[in-house]
Amino acid sequence: MNNPASVLCSVEIQKHVDLKPFNTFGLSSIAERLARVGDAQSLEEYFSSGEPHPSLILGGGSNLLLTKDIPGTVLKIEIPGIQLMDESEDAFFVKVGAGVVWHEFVLKAIENGWAGIENLSLIPGNVGTAPMQNIGAYGVEIKSVFHSLDAFLTEDKTWASFSLEECQFGYRESIFKRALRNKAIISSVTFRLKKTPAFNTSYGAIEQELEKMGVRDLTLKSVSDAVISIRQSKLPDPKKIGNSGSFFKNPVIDQVHFESLKSTFPEIVGYPAGDRKVKVAAGWLIEHAGFKGKSYGTYGVHDRQALVLVNHGGALGSDIYNLSEEIIQAVFGMYQIPLEREVNII
Ligand code: EPU
Predict the structure, then answer these.
(1) Given this model, what pLDDT does residue 330 score?
(2) Is residue 287 scored above 90 in pLDDT?
(3) pLDDT average, residue stretch 216-235
(4) pLDDT by residue (tens digit) across 31-56?
(5) Residues with CB under 6 A from ligand 1
């Protein structure tokens, strides 16, 4: 394939690039142009040089289903750096470049005794995209350790800093997925990490795993190791089997609806979600609609976690999209619950 590189300001632009290595589903999709941005200044230069607005802004590619080739420019954010900026009596303030791999930051935090993200070990993706969907696992969400972030606003061509409140975090939600979608590009995130750990092992499986590991005194490392072990036992490693973690969100429904489902499906799994609402385990719904482990050759549903759709190798994004559509219809038909995709469809 013709792949000449040109240089605009300090941003290198390549033509006709396959995005397969840049998305955890491992899907082929040809970007007409790929611009890789390695620092905040280059990001600003890209927009002030009259280049067209990018068709896609790419981080770690871990929450993305590419169903087609991408015309125009894909802007890939590769800003590095982990820097301890400040300390207070009980916290470390750490600024992290948007292009840092999330789990590498978690490992660095554990090494330095910065507490609060050990439960978020091994989540695929980069630091810059983590706040967009308020990543969460095992009882912790990024919002609990978030201090602020810097982003470039592409319409005004200015920089802005966002506080916790301004990010409007919700369950797998933030302002960057809604009002500021494609309008704010995160360059760095500053975390407020604790000096004294407040371990959160209430998520049942963590306690069991720690016991299995023979851990008596909790440390950041032991909790992280337990989370890694649980994740590895349930979730496919994107380096071996293409996937994007949970493909759907866990739906929140009215208590009355849940009670009525429970009389038909006594084993259904749900957790109180306040205000007479229940958050239902989508994995359970999908499994009991008969999809768990179902394989369609090149793609299918993971055999240990029905919320995860997989590319066994050679699948098309459109195959996986059509499967997700089939699942949504089947789940709605059985339980009258509309599932919502967590993954961005391109
Ligand atoms: N379940 C089934 N069948 C399945 C999968 C799950 O019955 O195939 C039931 C389990 O029995 C369990 C319940 O569903 O009682 C919850 O399962 P699990 O603990 O695996 O968590 P989840 O709700 O399916 C969420 C997050 C994950 C996160 C885990 C652990 C969402 C959409 N997903 O999954 O996040 O790792 O909790 O905290 O909220 C991600 O977002 O990509 C992701 C992996």
Answers:
(1) 98
(2) yes
(3) 96
(4) 999 999 999 999 999 999 888 899 99
(5) 137-138, 234, 245-246, 249-250, 269, 281, 283-284, 287, 292, 305-307, 342
C-alpha to C-alpha distances, 278 to 7, 21, 143, 250, nearest whole angstrom: 52, 38, 21, 10
Ligand 1 atom with least separation from CA of 231 = 36
CATH number of 242-345: 3.90.78.10
Domain boundaries, the chain: 6-77, 82-194, 242-345
Q: CATH fold of 6-77, please?
A: 3.30.43
Query: pTM score, two decimals?
Result: 0.94
Q: For the chain, how many helices (H) and strands (E)?
A: 8, 20
CATH number corresponding to 82-194: 3.30.465.10
Q: Which amino acid residue places its CA nearest to atom 25 of ligand 1?
A: 137
Find how far residue 85's CA is from the centre of its chain: 25
Instruction: Give pLDDT tens digits for 82-94.
Output: 999 999 999 999 9
